[in-house]
Amino acid sequence: MTATSLTVTRGHPRPQDVALAAADALGDGEAARLTLDARTMSRGDALLLVEQLRQALVALPWPLR
Length: 65
Description:
Oligomer: single chain
Mean pLDDT: 85
Strand order of the largest sheet: 1-2
Largest sheet: 2 strands, antiparallel
Radius of gyration: 12 Å
Helix content: 25-40%
Strand content: 15-25%
Order of helices and strands: EEH
């Protein structure tokens, strides 16, 4: 089964703005990965992005496809 990648960008705050794409599976399927390109963002910006992902996970149909 394919994993799903969720991508959120600063300045696009709505759960509908989170992009979904197929991704390589991680291990046995009981894992998640969060990659932050934090070269130019503050900790607060990073936390806002994580909150946007949380809101998207609540709003999107489950399981993700």
